[in-house]
Amino acid sequence: MNSRWGDWKLSLTATWVAAALASPAQVSAAQEALGEYGELEVITITADKIERDKQDVASSVSVFEGYTLEDMGVDSLEGIANRTPNVSFYRADSHTTYLVYRGIGGTTNMNKVWNVNVDDVTLPYVATDILLDAARVEVLRGSQGALYGRNTHAGVVNVVTRSPDDYFDANGVVSYESYNTMKFTGAVGGPIDDDMGYRFALGYRSGDGYFKNRTLGTDDGNDHQQVSARGKFVYAPTDIDKLTFSLTLDRFDGGFDSYAIGGGTTTESNEPGYNDGSLVAPSVTWVRQLSLGKLTSITAYSDSNYGFLQDWDFTAMDIMAAEYDENFQTFTQEFRLEGQSADDLNWLVGAFLLVEDLDTETMVRFGADAGAAGMPADFEMSQRSTIKSRGGALFGQVVYQPWQAVELTGRLRLDYERKELDWQGFAGPAPTGSKSFDEGWFAALPSVSAAWILSDEQRIYGSISRGYKAGDFNNVQVDPAVVTEPVDPEYATTYELGYKGTLADRRLELNAALFYVDWQDLQVETQLNVPGAAPVFLKQNAAEAHSSGIEVELRAQPHEDWELFAGGSYLFDYEFDKYPNSVSGDISGNLLPNANEFVLNGGAVYRHDSGLFFAVDATVNGSRFFDEANQFEQKTYTLVNARIGYEGESMSAYLYGRNLLDEDYALSMFNGTTMSAEPAIVGVQVKVEL
């Protein structure tokens, strides 16, 4: 660990704040330092469901172009989180990654919260390779409920994949790195005729993993193999119609022996475990130009499966193991109509439909040594359940510029969802009970913002937005005492004040934001004491919290061969305002879990006409707690990554490394054990383009 960073964190944070509030004289000096080379490209995004310049959107958005991700060697959602201010993550297993935005979203969940959209579709699947053939990734911080609906109360990741070009294009990338890890991605696409085009992408990765098991004598505790595929077929028979047929496929399987008592990468479990899943997800997008505006229809279906087996005592003894399986079948339909009524008014209206069935099975097995934990040997408890979710929403957006220097944006989403639960419990083969519940929730989710346009390249904005996490059941538990009435939705309201500027003749970009998030009705675990009975822990809407902080991003093109970037974030305050009856007692005032106190990152990409390429980036992650009780803390650590290579017209080769300082840090905590992150990784890569 680099504990020295803890002593300097306030002064480093002050540096980023000073950059955000730089005086005109300081900006002028920066402009002179940049010289007369290069210009930053204009990045168009669809974060608010219409195409706009990133700098015109009145919210905090980090954007990563596909080629930028390739330059930095980023091939996972975690890699993006590590390079985004005020976005942290924690891992549940080899594939399940939860994102935490500005301290919000890091508490435990009953069921998974999906806040990653791929081509306007949310896929309820833990292992989607979102970066396969990605054209752009947009990370939105703050409550996004007005446009995106449920489970985006903290933020959302919007992924746009590549579509067919009007010319033939093909590429393939092969990598080999530490721990016998092999990776391959390839894509091919182009026109079929004047009206049709296609694009196919394939990804494959496998590896032995970096965990060793002392009990079993193995060194592949988190081995993995995954195959991903994506296809697009575009048909545009007229100038006003465009149809896009998409299909995403995925299959993964691997071990699940990655939690160690006391940390590190050596485990002692007597059960190697497994972790697997699959996905089939077709969609159809139709865009038609009408006299009134542009009509978009997005029809999507997905069938996904996920399961695991894990040793829950994490020792060489055969005490307890858990097995889980879930299957989502999801259908969504979205309609959007957008237009421009005048030069100063843009509008969008839409409707959304959700039909989703979730089937789950949980089995807790007590082995031959279960007596050590006070449980009967060779005993099983299990549950089988189904949740049927039906929902609909109406939403709209208006962007109005009443004066040249003022832009106003208003959004509203009216969202309704009903869930039905059928649950059955078993102790061995004997039923322990069956339960059925039915509940519906309505949410009004507004968002307003105002921007003061200082010039074509600079603006100051303020916004207020509301989002919610859907109500839910505690259906995955095997104890019928805790499968009760559902918890209601939890809500987060984000207040944000920001600045966006492109300076020095578009060679320097500076974005900064201050924010405050009010988090209400948290779905948390509380203790219910019944006289004469053992304590029961229930999920209830029994906590309140808040967070506040600052984030800054810089991007510069000082020379045509160089691109520089930097970012920083600091949480002023992030704690539970109210949590009186948690499993650990009254923890009101404790820090929110899975949120880094501060993050500093920066890097550079150098590309010369001779073919020489070099990229380096570093991230200092501040300390964080993994649990609500603030007992398990990850200290500050620094990640350094680098790539060097030669790029030719059709073939390129690179040498790269991740975590070059070989930092020892944890990704998550469970029942007193931790999952450690990968150690130092080195690899080679070859890319071929046709």
Automatic annotation (TrEMBL):
The keyword Repeat does not apply. It is a multi-pass membrane protein. The keyword Transcription regulation does not apply. Residues 1-29 form the signal peptide. InterPro entries: Beta-barrel_TonB, Beta-barrel_TonB_sf, Plug_dom, TonB-dep_rcpt-like. Residues 193-660 form the TonB-dependent receptor-like beta-barrel domain. One of its GO terms (biological process) is iron ion transport. One of its GO terms (cellular component) is cell outer membrane. It comes from the Bacteria. Keywords: Cell outer membrane, Ion transport, Iron, Iron transport, Membrane, Signal, TonB box, Transmembrane, Transmembrane beta strand, Transport. Pfam families: Plug, TonB_dep_Rec_b-barrel. It is found in: Cell outer membrane. Residues 53-156 form the TonB-dependent receptor plug domain. PANTHER family: FERRICHROME IRON RECEPTOR-RELATED, TONB-DEPENDENT OUTER MEMBRANE RECEPTOR. Belongs to the TonB-dependent receptor family. This is Iron complex outermembrane recepter protein.
